[in-house]
Amino acid sequence: DAKTTQPPSMDCAEGRAANLPCNHSTISGNEYVYWYRQIHSQGPQYIIHGLKNNETNEMASLIITEDRKSSTLILPHATLRDTAVYYCIVRVGTNAGKSTFGDGTTLTVKP
Amino acid sequence: DGGITQSPKYLFRKEGQNVTLSCEQNLNHDAMYWYRQDPGQGLRLIYYSQIVNDFQKGDIAEGYSVSREKKESFPLTVTSAQKNPTAFYLCASSILGAPYGYTFGSGTRLTVV
């Protein structure tokens, strides 16, 4: 599975959009981009995933560049409860296998 | 409600003792995974299993062992050979054949003294 690169930390004002970037320049054609978040001392929570099209669900939007080498997770109206560590991983979605979770981005939403 | 259960939430053991962490899921997921997380760091894969009675090593399998005798269960044993076992351990499961995400348990925090 390809590796990802994320900034270590970001701040966002409450009520504003939080845009979290992820680079995955070695992604293969059959690998999906997944986003998770982890609130302190809990198990990570799945947020969203995509292959090449932009995706939206009730939690967030995922924008994947046309060359698929990077993506952005968008939380449209960040709240204090969105403060967490956000992980971007890439993996072949239909198989089990080694998935590397890097150190992620610590998002701090401030009042 | 379907989910994945890890027990216990906190575990204390003396150095040199083996300890087994439980992971049970009732989601009918095919694959199961064990990750280790150290303070301030990401998750590292220990073992994973796609099918009953079969499992593969992850990136940091040394000092750990697993079994998959039932689809619902994937226990992890931390052996005395693991040099630095104190960590937060996370179990996850997923469907095979469809690109859904992992479902994680709430974790077991192991402290070896």
The main sheet of chain A comes to: 5 strands, mixed
Number of helices of chain A: 0
In what range is the share of β-strand residues of chain B? over 45%
Q: Could you give the order of the helices and strands of chain B?
A: EEEEEEEEEEE
* Fraction of residues in helix of chain B: under 10%
Helix/strand/pairing class of chain A, anyone? mainly beta
Number of strands of chain A: 9
Low-confidence region ranges of chain A: none
Can you characterise this structure?
The complex is a heterodimer of chains A (111) and B (113). Helix content of chain A is 0%, strand content 47%. Chain A contains no helices and nine strands. Chain B is globular, with a radius of gyration of 13 Å. Chain B has strands at residues 4-7, 10-13, 19-25, 31-37, 43-51, 54-57, 64-66, 76-78, 87-94, 103-104, 108-112. The mean pLDDT of chain B is 93. Chain B has no helices and eleven strands. With 113 residues, chain B is mainly beta. The A-B interface holds A 32, 34, 36, 41-46, 49, 51, 87, 93-104 and B 6, 30-31, 33, 35, 40-45, 48-50, 58-59, 88, 90, 92, 94, 96-107, 109.
Quick recap of the structure?
The complex is a heterodimer of chains A (111) and B (113). Chain A is built from no helices and 9 strands.
Secondary structure topology:
The complex is a heterodimer of chains A (111) and B (113).
Chain A: E1 9-13, E2 18-23, E3 31-38, E4 45-50, E5 55-56, E6 61-64, E7 70-75, E8 84-92, E9 105-110
Chain B: E1 4-7, E2 10-13, E3 19-25, E4 31-37, E5 43-51, E6 54-57, E7 64-66, E8 76-78, E9 87-94, E10 103-104, E11 108-112
Parallel strand pairs in B: 2-11
Antiparallel strand pairs in B: 1-3, 3-8, 4-5, 4-9, 5-6, 7-8, 9-10, 9-11
